């Protein structure tokens, strides 16, 4: 059985927590992006032992190539100083701020099919908001870099309305639709998250330096790449999976036939997130990609914020074969959710570490399952830990 990654940093001895954080940061720089074999190694032996194996080249063949180039570049302490100087931080899977519920979609992808689909090792963050709180109800908005006046207007109306209703707008800070979406959220005092394909200390594009600073003031600027990393073409495609993962759905406003926005839609669909697209004039080359996705059934047609909410929210936990009037929705649970729920005592409560010890499941998976169960009204949290909620009471 695979050894789990251990409890959250807040539950660890400070010295152990520091050692693990340095290991996570070192590994993040070694691979700089998704690396499914390294993620599997960390899952089996933990970040500290994985870091040792990389340094000493005590690795399976599948990992030697991806780690050889930078395995001697151990500047984890310097990276942590660099992000702290920006007023930022690194968030690891050990931290309570880690969006385990969101990353579950990536964790369940088939690595053979989606080589870039691995869960990011860490997330580098600028901004004071909690990453997990900021993504509680979120929509990813992407589209053409060379957007038209029509696309800008539609983007501003839909995202501004959603942000005013409390939705977080997630995008990539690129020219065109991305920038309009961010600015529309900022204009109504809403929250927005920019996910970069470079270090959070390297504004990209450079002309959006001020925009990214504004986003960091009220929202978050996020990247899986360590400070100092410059943007490269392949990193944008990998970045798109994080944009999709952090949101309840993806909306495309204007996309050409070969638009990168379709890549973000692909990730959303792989993770079971709704993909949405707005139509444009049939004569507009800027909307050809949206029309193709709608016609091929890759995206649902939406034209206003209320239609987006109909498809992407409110967030609900799907319980197969459970009647809305059922008095026992727990009977429809499967997989990890069923295991965790069954392990909770009928009377009393348990902490995630205790549930992990009983089930053999990793603590991050336990926490993600508990979050799902809480959303379904099946469990609650108090000072003693997680407990079952009697049928009909819910968590409210």
TrEMBL record:
Residues 90-311 form the Smf/DprA SLOG domain. It comes from the Bacteria. Residues 325-379 form the DprA winged helix domain. SUPFAM superfamilies: MCP/YpsA-like. Pfam families: DNA_processg_A, WHD_DprA. Gene3D superfamilies: 3.40.50.450, Winged helix-like DNA-binding domain superfamily/Winged helix DNA-binding domain. Belongs to the DprA/Smf family. NCBIfam families: dprA. This is DNA-processing protein DprA. It comes from Nocardia aurea.
């Amino acid at each position: 059985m695979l050894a789990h990654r251990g409890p959250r940093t807040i539950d660890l001895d400070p010295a152990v927590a520091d050692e693990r954080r340095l290991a996570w940061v070192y590994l993040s720089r070694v691979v700089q992006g998704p690396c499914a074999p390294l993620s599997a190694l960390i899952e089996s032996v933990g970040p500290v032992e994985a870091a040792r194996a990389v340094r000493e080249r005590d690795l399976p063949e599948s990992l030697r190539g991806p780690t050889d180039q930078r395995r001697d570049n151990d500047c984890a302490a310097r990276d942590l100083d660099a992000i702290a100087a920006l007023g930022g931080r690194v968030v690891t899977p050990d931290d309570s701020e880690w969006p385990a519920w969101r990353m579950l979609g990536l964790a369940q992808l088939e690595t053979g099919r989606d080589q870039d689909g691995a869960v990011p090792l860490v997330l580098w963050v600028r901004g004071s908001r909690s990453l997990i709180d900021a993504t509680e109800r979120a929509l990813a908005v992407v589209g053409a870099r060379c957007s038209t006046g029509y696309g800008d207007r539609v983007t501003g109306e839909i995202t501004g309305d959603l942000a005013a209703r409390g939705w977080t707008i997630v995008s990539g800070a690129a020219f065109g639709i991305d920038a309009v979406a961010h600015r529309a959220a900022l204009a109504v005092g809403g929250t927005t998250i920019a996910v970069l394909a470079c270090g959070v200390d390297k504004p990209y594009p450079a002309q959006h330096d001020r925009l990214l600073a504004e986003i960091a003031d009220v929202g978050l600027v996020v990247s899986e790449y360590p400070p100092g990393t410059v943007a490269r073409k392949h990193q944008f495609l990998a970045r798109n999976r994080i944009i999709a993962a952090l949101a309840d759905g993806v909306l495309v406003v204007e996309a050409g036939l070969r638009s990168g926005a379709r890549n973000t839609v692909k990730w959303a669909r792989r993770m079971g997130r709704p993909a949405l697209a707005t139509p444009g004039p049939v004569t507009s080359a800027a909307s050809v990609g949206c029309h193709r996705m709608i016609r091929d059934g890759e995206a649902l047609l939406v034209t206003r914020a209320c239609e987006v909410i109909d498809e992407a929210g409110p967030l609900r936990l799907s319980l197969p074969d459970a009647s809305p009037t059922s008095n026992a929705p727990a009977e429809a649970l499967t997989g990890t959710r069923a295991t965790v729920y069954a392990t909770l005592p009928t009377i009393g409560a348990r902490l995630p570490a205790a549930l992990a010890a009983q089930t053999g499941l990793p603590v991050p998976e336990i926490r993600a399952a508990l979050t799902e169960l809480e959303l379904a009204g099946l469990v609650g949290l108090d000072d003693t830990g997680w407990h079952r909620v009697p049928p009909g009471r819910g968590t409210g």
